[in-house]
Amino acid sequence: MTGTKLLRRIAPQLLTLAAVILLVSIYYPAFYQIVFVNDRLVGIPIDVVKRGAPVALLAIGMTLVIATRGIDLSVGAVMAICGASAAWAIDQGYGIGAALGIAGAAGLVCGLWNGVLVAFFGIQPIVATLILMVAGRGVAQLITGGTILTFDSNEFAYLGSGTLIGVPVPTVIWVLTGIAFGLLVRRTALGLLVESIGVNLRASTLAGINSRVLLIAVYMGSGVCAALAGVIATADIRGADANNAGLWLELDAILAVVIGGNSLLGGRFSILASLLGAMIIQTINTGILLAGFPSEFNLVIKAVLVIVILVLQSPRIMPYLELLASRFKRSSATRLEAGE
Amino acid sequence: MLLSTRDLTKSFPGTIALDRVNFGLKAGEVHALLGENGAGKSTLIKCLTGAYRRDSGDILFEGKPIFPQSTLEAQAIGIGTVYQEVNLLPNLTVAENLTLGHQPTRFGMIRPRAMQALAQEMLTGYGLDIDVRRPLESYSVAVQQIVAIARAVHLSGRVLILDEPTASLDAREVQMLFDVIRDLRGRGLGIIFISHFLDQVFEISDSLTILRNGRHIATHPAVEVDRMQLITLMLGRELEEETAVRHRPEATGTSADAIRFTGVGRRGRIAPFDLTVRKGEVIGMAGLLGSGRTESAEVLFGAVPSDSGTVEDGNGPVDLRNPRSAIAASFAFAPEDRKTDGIIAELSVRENIILALQARQGWARPIPQAEQQRMAEDYIARLDIRTPDAEKPVGLLSGGNQQKVILARWLATNPRFLILDEPTRGIDVGAHAEILRLIEDVVAQGMSILVISSELEELVAVSHRVIVVRDRHHVSELTGADVSPDTILRAIAAPHTILEAAV
């Protein structure tokens, strides 16, 4: 994509993010302040990009799954499984490398399971991944032995609460993962092939695309993203909570992809736009807390904001907004010509 | 006339589905509507039942113009429809299905007894002795079909449209259904009957109307037409000077480098057949809709892999497990249904063109952007694809241009064997001629082609030999001087007895 095309694609998300930030800063004017203390950046925006890490990571994988006209409801549970696996490995005295490897392998296996159900057995993705969504927490509980499995490893905890040149490590992880996936799909033909099977699976298969393998790979990619998110969540609290790690985050991830303007019917996708969607959601979450509303209002306010965003981005409303924008552009252009 | 249309016209982007069609249905007749896929039968039905809004023309019901906006409105006027797949609710009872939407109620509560009585009453005269309290799904498709008819007749009562009602019935059930149809005809209903089974059409119909390419071709009393004439009308036989004088250069290849299919087939879809494809040869395939033409092509491309036989070329066996392996063997296949099997509508013309080549190269070796651009522009110019630019989503192009994009996709892979299933269906005359010219060009370069087409003149014009398919068997192969519309028609229309003797 060329620069202007990319900008056009993500303009709604950028504008939404700006509007949400503006809204939050009305209630909390100190929103923009970022300071550098104790070798780390501190401030609300930094908190947003750190707290938003799990949803951002899940949204990366979810974008690709949704581009194939699928959906992955299991990512929250996979987070719990992978977090528990990593905590177990640390607890058993394996090093951080082994713990990460085990967590990643668990994510890949979960993705393989989902992918095989979808690609080989033809089960609808929403049902196929629902199985692991429900069963996954049970698996995670088996790994933790039904308790919150705590561990003592500063190295591992660094992944959740450490900083790299002042930037929180979770932020570094989701940004790098986003870039890696972005390069992987756009510098190779993967992105095109994924979009193709999402638009028309049958025609794509007849054109020689190995759609089964591709579908499985996409769900495995989602599994890896969930594993990273699970590791961060576990490292952050220095313990694996099988019941609460990643709880309901699959829905936030889907929401991030949708706010990112990606169609649930598959086809064209933008990982960058989904990541912006994740940041919009986190800004809302953080903003509601900062604004000092009683906590029982949080979910309702979030729902209202999400509805407003989705309605503004809907195909019914979007053309009017674009019309308005072009009129504004034209009138400001004429004003410029008139020398005002 | 009970129901008639005057200059009924309906177009979709890129095609005219109905072109000034005049159609008339009398009360007390069974009127068969005939034509190949894409002839306009279902579009006509959908206009009559309000599912589609017509572009122009009139629909007259008992001489008065009507404007049905929905199937419900058409029903209220008196036009009821029963489709091939019974569109009732199988898990509800027969009585509930029959009375749905107009159940007898008291204070808003359904009165089960009264509902059952009403259902019983609706079913009288249909010769059904069934328990209306049992779920619909516990009865055979034929019974369900008759229940659907009873409901449609009760709700509308003047015109009954039966769209492929016998497709999933056995011979005895067909007779049961026909008894019902005859009885309804006796009661003065006008019945429109759509079927691909010509024997049944002749058995039940009083009149025949033939559509082709969205045009009304002919209406005849059924007794005045024979099977041969009917097929001639359906497939079209206007000899055009241009195609008639075209000469066929001889195929250049020898049998040594030919692709030999021996005994390939697929149980339940197409009986095993042999086929030898020589270099630079065009093989035509003729047959009626549902005869096994497309099924043959799918076996040849591995889309539905063969469960018998072998495939070999000069270098040994050829693997045709799936489309991927067929493409690796330099095969290509432009399917009949462009929308569902061909184009990737949301992707651009450029992406659609490079797709098969990219899939063959694998994901890790992307075709450079500049190279994609060059290929797209090259094919847009060579095939005269009408598009503002290469980045336009292919779904927005007309049918003929979509077809050219798919041809470009396959030509880009430089195949040795190209299978074209109805390459010219539903596209305008200009694009039609261009596609035929293109076939000649690539064949001259040594490519082998299999063309499946319902248009016999077209087949005769381009093919070196023609294979005739009937009832899922390859029944004959015509070569040399035998390749003519007449001989093809005779082979297609040959009576069933000969075939049964041959099997």
CATH topology of chain A: ABC transporter involved in vitamin B12 uptake, BtuC
The spatial strand order of the largest sheet of chain B comes to 6-9-10-3-11-12
Series of H and E elements of chain A: HEEHHHHHEHEEHHHHEHHHH
Report the CATH superfamily of the largest domain in chain B.
Answer: P-loop containing nucleotide triphosphate hydrolases
Main beta sheet of chain A: 2 strands, antiparallel
Helical residue percent band of chain B: 25-40%
Mean pLDDT of chain A: 91
Tally of helical runs of chain B: 19
Cα separation of the termini of chain B: 46 Å
Q: For the CA atoms, what is the radius of gyration of chain B?
A: 25 Å
Largest interface: A-B, 22 and 30 residues
CATH topology of the largest domain in chain B: Rossmann fold
Q: Which range does the strand content of chain A fall in?
A: under 5%
Count of individual beta strands of chain A: 6
CATH architecture of the largest domain in chain B: 3-Layer(aba) Sandwich
Low-pLDDT windows of residues of chain A: none
Low-confidence stretches of chain B: 238-247, 497-503
> Biggest sheet of chain B, in brief?
6 strands, mixed
Describe it for me?
- The complex is a heterodimer of chains A (340) and B (503).
- With 340 residues, chain A is mainly alpha-helical.
- Chain A has 15 helices and six strands.
- Helix content of chain A is 72%, strand content 5%.
- In chain A, helix 3 (53-67) runs parallel beside helix 8 (169-187).
- The longest helix of chain A has 27 residues, at 211-237.
- Chain B has three domains: 3-235, P-loop containing nucleotide triphosphate hydrolases (Rossmann fold, 3-Layer(aba) Sandwich); 241-330 and 415-502, P-loop containing nucleotide triphosphate hydrolases (Rossmann fold, 3-Layer(aba) Sandwich); 343-414, no CATH class.
- Chain B is 36% helix and 24% strand.
- Classes of the chains: A mainly alpha (340), B alpha/beta (503).
- Chain A binds chain B through residues 187-190, 192-193, 195-196, 199-200, 202-210, 214, 267-268, and chain B through 301, 303, 322-324, 327, 333, 335, 340-347, 351, 355-356, 358-367, 409.
